[in-house]
Amino acid sequence: MQQPPLLDVRGVHKWFGHLHVLQGVNLQVARGEVTCILGPSGSGKSTLLRTINQLEQVDRGRIYVDGELIGYRPRGKKLVALPERDLCRQRASIGMVFQSFNLFPHMSTLANVIEAPVGVLRQSRDEVRAEALSLLARVGLGDKANTYPRQLSGGQQQRVAIARALAMHPKLLLFDEPTSALDPELVGEVLDVIKDLAREGFTMVVVTHEISFAREVADTIMFMDDGRVVETGSPEQVLSNPKSERTRAFLSRVL
Predict the structure, then answer these.
(1) Torsion, CA 81, CA 87, CA 93, CA 99, rounded to 10
(2) Residue 241 has what DSSP assignment?
(3) d(Cα 82, Cα 69) in Å, to the nearest integer?
(4) Helices (H) and strands (E) in the chain, counts
(5) Local structure of residue 3 (DSSP, 8 states)
(6) How far apart are CA 136 and CA 111, in angstroms?
(7) Phi-psi region of 103 (alpha: psi -120 to 50; beta: other; left: phi over 0)
(8) Is the pLDDT of residue 62 over 70?
(9) Using one digit for the tens of pLDDT, what is the confidence trace for 198-242?
(10) How many CA atoms lie within 13 A of 209 on its CB side?
(11) What is the phi-psi region of residue 210: left when phi exceeds 0, alpha when psi lies from -120 to 50, beta otherwise?
(12) pTM above the 0.85 mark?
């Protein structure tokens, strides 16, 4: 019997005023698989990620993570938004790594990694510290525990952000163009960490413009344009033999 997907996005719509940013998006990601989302700027990729962990509410449709409806609970035939406390609990199981790192500048790298398990999960600081040090070593920054974000390169800051997400033991990891703010020579060090996580079996959704990375790491590639899913398939199908003229036109400009 086939397992249900860990992530199940069903017919999601999102408007910003009159702008219809997501137009009936469907996405299923199996446990332990990696989906890479490609598409031009403004196609709705980042907004989709933000609806998955409810940084943005959906206007229509439903999102499930590990079988749990995200952001709402049924009340009769209606859906009622969850209170902030329950939203925080759900977000704790969905790690997100942003384009711009979002580290606390006044905290050391170690403190940045420790903060959420202590503040959200109510774990003791001593209990979390050893794991945080291990996570920093895992992303190649074991010697930077007492360093502050301003003393790190962009690639190092993004690796701290990944360690911070891992500290919450998420069921699902979301990456929103994790290398777009980096100098070209720093991109590889971040992508290598994400590749290691893929090999370890983490369930991930990665919005990226790095086509060669997507080809190597993705189980599924989804191409979006104008708030819609244009094409979904294996890397071979989408990147080498795209069915859609829109996908072919996009790839011709970026490959």
Answers:
(1) 100
(2) S
(3) 10
(4) 9, 12
(5) P
(6) 11
(7) beta
(8) yes
(9) 999 999 999 999 999 999 999 999 999 999 999 999 999 999 999
(10) 16
(11) beta
(12) yes
44's enclosing H/E stretch is none
What pLDDT is recorded for position 20? 98
Q: Are 198 and 217 in contact (CB under 8 A)?
A: yes
Distance between CA atoms of 48 and 54, rounded to whole angstroms?
A: 10
Give DSSP secondary structure letters for 168-208. T--SEEEEESTTTTS-HHHHHHHHHHHHHHHHTT--EEEE-
The secondary element (H helix, E strand) that includes residue 148 is: none
Judge whether residue 1 has pLDDT over 70.
no
SS3 64: strand
Sorted by sequence, the CB contacts under 8 Å of residue 42 that are 6+ apart come out as none
| Number of residues that this document lists for the chain | 255
